[in-house]
Amino acid sequence: MARRGTVGALLTSGLVAMIAIGGAGGYGVGLLTTTDQSAAATGTAAAPLGGPGSSSPTPTATPSPTPPRKVTYDDSPALKADDLKYKTRSFTVKNVVKSAVSVRVPWNWDFTQPDPPTTGRFTDPTHKRWLRLEAGFTIRRPPAESMQVRIGELNRLPADQSLNILSQDVEGNAATLAYTYVPPKEQSPEGVLRYVVVRWVADDSGNCAVEMSSTGLPQDKEALLAVLDRAADSVRREDSPLTAGGTSRFGQRP
Hints:
The structure is a single chain. By secondary structure, the chain is an alpha+beta fold. The chain has a domain at 70-74 and 83-240: Protein Transport Mog1p, Chain A (3-Layer(aba) Sandwich), CATH 3.40.1000.10. 12% of the residues lie in helices and 29% in strands. It is built from 3 helices and 11 strands, in the order E-H-E-E-E-E-E-H-E-E-E-E-H-E. The protein has a 7-stranded antiparallel sheet, with helices on both faces. Strand 2 and strand 3 (98-106) form a beta hairpin. The longest helix is centred in the last third of the chain and has 14 residues, at 221-234. The chain starts with 8 loop residues before the first strand and ends in a 14-residue tail after the last strand.
């Protein structure tokens, strides 16, 4: 089993306590919530169909489910764990709080961030593998719970993304989820199958402090897990307020 890392989550003494709103967990997306309820659940009666004094409902076409896309496979040589050399990299993310993050990653993987900088991403020279890290969110729930939130999100993906959950594991201070899927057409017009392994790592409180995911091709499985293990073993998070005036509740995450 992969080794589990520890996280030093050091919050600045002046940091105002925050009440978490919303949920989190997403692979680059926020928590999706289901608000629809049945009539029985809400206690409201369903309208009669075709009864006396009422008109018959107009027939509507039933939408056809979206069929899975044709999956293609990138047969590039597999990434080799033994070929990877690591160095410590540092960056800052901003979400509910500002988190200074340090982590050991492959030395020649390029660093990028979105705007606003809610995550950090290290991408290999071929642009076919990457490691994404997320911090700055409220430390509020254990890794196992964050993983279940993610699974719920994934299960709502369209059928044409061919999701296949391979494994889920909780051990020590971390939860790990592995799956394959086909990215949306705008991200992968060819429909190349991707392998993803996500890990939620807790701090001393037992709650998730860092979310990280290692993505590549199915043949990269062992190397992607090695990259994730090294990152989980070495990651550190140190928080401070976004501004001198306090903190923001923007974008709740894991």
